[in-house]
Amino acid sequence: MSDDLRMYSVSSSSIHALYNNGLSGTTNYAAVTLSHGGSNFENGGEEHLFNIELDVDANQIWGDQINGLPLVNSGIGNGEEITSRIFKKNGNNFITLKENNNTYKTDDRLFDEVFSTVAVKSYVSLITYPTSCTCTEKEINEPPTSYYIGCKTRHFGGTNDDPNHFWGIVSEPSNFQYQQPVNDIIDASIYAYNYATSLEPVYKCLWPDADNQFIPVYHPCHGHNVGDVIYYPQGTDNINLAQYSYRSYWRYLSQTVETTFDQNGQNPISKTTNFYYDNPKHLQLTRTETFNTDGTKYITRLKYPGDYVVDKPSDNDAKVLDDMANRIIHMGGLVIEKTSSIVKPGTTTELITGAELTKYEFVNNKGYLAVKHSRKLPLSEQNAALKQQCAKVSKLNGKSRMLK
What we know:
The chain has 3 helices and 21 strands. The protein is mainly beta. The protein folds into 3 domains: 1-122 and 240-261, no CATH class; 132-239, no CATH class; 277-404, no CATH class. Strands 1-2-4-5-14-15-16-17-18-19-20-21 form a 12-stranded antiparallel β-sheet, with helices on one face. The termini are far apart.
């Protein structure tokens, strides 16, 4: 009868990421092509390209891998549309008629991460080695307990993390024979060495410029102070330790480039729109800037309840804005002011072309009503004139509607 004993552990987690590529759950497509008619795109079609970003495994800190842990949600951009194209078919060729390219931004003004560490005990033999030691003068001053051979050379541009050593077993003393590299290519396989089997084998770096030295092995307290607590790795060989995290990102579309072509796929006309989120308190879109091919720049500015500083609201309008911004009535994402302006090619002057002001008033039994005041101005009028005109717009010129 065999004395071999094998023990297994099966675990599961209800918060395991089921929606990651490579796991059972959702299938993600990097590209999707749609036909506008015909199995061979006789009537043209469209193509959509998507970003694929995978969540990553937990960071294994110590021991063996722990299966079943939640993934780190690093794939925040997964599924975002990067490019879309509309095309037609001309014979065996496909001609692009319109193309959109999107750029996304992960804004580091708002980021948070919560870490979780998991420790699992392995089914191994009983560990009797101590886990820690409080250093005394005796341990600190102990002579080396052993030596090992180490190479201090950083070969071929190597670094401390990756010194490019070439380790092998030889005998000391040895008449080590090196062959010259073939075609100046450094290849470890073309180096030969001779050793006598009667001599003690030594594990060392075999490169010609190796600086092999005996490195002493001291007690772990060597170099510490009396009273310091050090930990023995051997005392935790039966522990597997891993760390994962949940991350909170602020990510949004930051730019769209729209390009239109003629029926031959030539003469592109492009329009670039940049999206700005200037207030991290309410996370809303505050500004867009669109550039046409001819250099014309169109600007739209948006203001929300959270963009107004209301220290001590006294009048009704200020009180409503304060309530909206502080989530008393959950209306912080509604636009209060919207202005449109244009910058002509070759100039830096911003000309206001129109504005819209929306006021909110509470009506008994009806909730909050939005009263819009709109005004369009000729390009000759400037920002100061616009604000003055908008302030004079009569409430009768606005339109009211019920907000649900």
